[in-house]
From TrEMBL:
Molecular function per GO: ABC-type oligopeptide transporter activity; ATP binding; ATP hydrolysis activity
Protein name: ATP-binding cassette, subfamily B
Entry's transmembrane regions: 27-49, 69-90, 148-165, 171-191, 251-273
Domain ABC transmembrane type-1: 30-312
Length: 595
């Protein structure tokens, strides 16, 4: 991001798209506008009252008029104060409303986006849009927009009143404006360059800190603490240096602005004094003129100040609307056919070609076809990267295939209601995700609103009840961030309990071996054996025991089906499976079995 780019190319298109969000709160918008207009009128009335005070009251020694105008001035100030307060209130509430609605809309959109989107956009980036960018918009919609409008009204009103008060002196001020504005603009650019440079240095140090915090364990294991500290502190020092330079620039700008503005006012006063002594201008008119010129200058300055904020908000709005505009890749067909639910649903892949949207050139599945009968247990075996997990992803419709069909109970899944499809499948992933909520709630994800007895029953079936009962608060124990940490085997048993509670006709198991110790593994095995009974089960198998229990084994390699059959027939065939069995399941096991 270079200075000239972001300066010259402020695009208001994204800001315009905020209008419908704001207009949803017509009442607030209108109340804010009304307060703003009344407050500006009250401000603009002040110089007229001052003029009356001076010309009618002081100059003519008329105490009655002095009192009269004093009362009017106080009244104007009271109106100004009240209206400023109500403007502030309405505008801030409006900003909060709009940004909450935007956040809600974006989050709702995020829940619709398929994994293809999350493969491409980092979650940190999304969170920063949802927080930092939304906050930027909040202040723009609220404070900045109303400040801009207020300053514009003040500037325009005061400029008109200057001309009304004294056209001759207005011309004079007009002539002086370039001498004031041009150096201020140039100086302002210099200051902004400094500020951006300082922000970038700060961002550098945050980026380094984020990385270091995320990998503190690695840093410590390589005893890199000292080096990290010195890199971070030199980053911080650089950020400080840049901040100091930026503050200095800002100080120079402030001093210069004060100097030129007040010198100009003094110059106008000096010049006008001649008109006053010559009787061409009243003292009150002079006061009126000077106050209006100050207001016009303040209005102009104020507008340039909020300009930066508004252009930043425009960028933020663009980033948020980008999320809202993100196409939904996987969605329901126009007409969805109801899923004919049977306890035993068949599954079939017919000539499926697939590559991940994030890596176009790499084919992951090619012409993959297989059929699994209802109630059958099938194991998928193959080297790492063969496309085993991808089969599950497609069956759950996280992605749609490029070519070919996937059938569930004989129906193409593209024509099924997405929720009905996913409700029919229970997936136990390789690395189960446990959320930062209670154990009971974690299990209840399998079935919304499940009763406590059902949850406990599922946990018992998953051989998880005993360890849960030993936790400090049993099923109400919080897990994750601020709760207990669970072992790999415990997490997996919770995931199985979820699947048991879901009681879906199709079961997909991405079998994990690495996370489990021998005892956990035994429990997990027991739990799975119960779960698989009477369901169509596809298991990505890494264990010989599982493979041997399967009715049939599909062997995948490079995204294609290379062999299928039972353990014994495949071992006899002596192909890829026989080799894999030796490598993956261990010589001893296999040797023993072959005899
Ligand atoms: P397996 O489960 O058999 O080990 P996967 O189905 O996970 O293999 O992956 C098959 C291939 O697809 C691999 O080459 C992998 O790198 C690639 N792949 C997996 N997930 C993604 C993804 N989200 N985006 C892009 N490529 C992926
Ligand atoms: Mg896998």
């Amino acid at each position: 991001m270079t200075e000239s780019n972001s300066q010259s190319r402020v695009r208001f298109q994204p800001l315009r798209r905020l209008a419908p969000f704001a207009w949803k709160y017509k009442g607030l918008v209108l109340a804010a506008l009304a307060s703003l207009v009344v407050a500006s009128l009250a401000t603009l009335s002040l110089p007229i009252l001052v003029r009356g005070f001076v010309d009618r009251g002081i100059s003519e020694n008329n105490i009655a008029d002095v009192n009269h105008y004093t009362a009017l001035l106080v009244l104007a100030v009271v109106v100004l104060a009240l209206m400023s307060a109500s403007r502030y209130y309405f505008v801030i509430i409006l900003g909060e409303r709009v940004v909450n609605d935007l956040r809600t809309a974006v989050f709702a959109k995020l829940t619709l986006l398929s994994p293809a989107f999350y493969d491409r956009v980092r979650s940190g980036e999304i969170v920063s849009r949802l927080t930092a960018d939304a906050t930027q918009i909040r202040s723009a919609v609220g404070a900045s927009a109303s400040m801009a409008l207020r300053n514009f009204l003040l500037f325009a009103g005061a400029a008109v009143m200057m001309v009304v008060t004294s056209p001759r002196m207005s011309l004079l001020v007009l002539g002086a404006i370039p001498f004031i504005v041009i150096p201020l603009v140039l100086l302002g650019r210099w200051v902004r360059r400094r500020q951006r440079f300082a922000q970038d240095r700060l961002a550098d140090s945050s980026a380094f800190a984020t990385e270091a915090i995320g990998s503190m364990r690695i840093l410590q294991s390589f005893t890199q603490e000292e080096r990290a500290k010195s890199v971070f502190s030199s980053n911080i020092e650089a950020a400080f240096g840049a901040a100091r330079a930026s503050v200095r620039a800002r100080a120079v700008l402030t001093a210069f602005a004060f100097f030129v503005i007040f010198t100009s006012i003094v110059a106008v006063l000096w010049y006008a004094a001649h008109d006053v002594t010559a009787g061409r201008l009243s003292a009150g008119a002079l006061s009126q003129f000077v106050i209006y010129s100050t207001m016009a200058a303040a209005g102009l300055g104020g507008m340039s100040e909020v300009w930066g904020e508004i252009s930043q908000a425009s960028g933020s709005a663009e980033r948020l609307f980008e999320l809202l505009d993100e196409p939904v890749l996987v969605k329901n067909a126009q007409v969805v056919s109801p899923l004919v639910t049977a306890s035993n649903l068949s599954v079939a892949f017919e000539g499926v070609d697939f590559h991940y949207p994030s890596s176009e050139e790499r084919t992951v599945l090619s012409a993959l076809s297989f059929a699994i009968a209802g109630g059958e247990t099938v194991a998928i075996v193959g080297p790492s990267g063969a496309g085993k997990t991808t089969v599950f992803q497609l069956l759950m419709r996280f992605y749609d295939p490029e070519r070919g069909r996937i059938l569930l109970g004989g129906q193409p899944i593209g024509g099924l209601d997405l929720n009905a499809l996913r409700s029919a499948i229970a997936l136990v992933p390789q690395e189960p995700v446990i959320f930062a909520m209670s154990i009971a709630d974690n299990i209840a994800m399998g079935r919304e609103g499940a009763e406590r007895e059902a949850i406990i029953e599922a946990a018992r079936a998953a051989h998880a009840h005993d360890f849960i009962a030993q936790l400090p608060e049993g099923y109400d124990t919080m897990v994750g961030e601020r709760g207990v940490t669970l072992s790999g085997g415990q997490r997996q048993r919770l995931a199985i309990a979820r699947a048991i509670l879901k009681d879906a006709p199709i079961l997909l198991l991405d079998e994990a071996t690495s996370a489990l110790d021998a005892e956990s593994e035994r429990y997990v095995q027991l739990a799975l054996a119960d779960l698989m009974k009477g369901r169509t089960t596809i298991v990505i198998a890494h264990r010989l025991a599982t493979v041997k229990k399967a009715d049939r084994i599909l062997v995948l390699e490079g995204g294609a089906l290379v062999e299928q059959g039972t353990h014994d027939s495949l071992v006899t065939a002596g192909g890829l499976y026989a080799r894999l069995a030796q490598l993956q399941f261990g010589m001893d096991d296999l040797g023993h079995d072959l005899d």
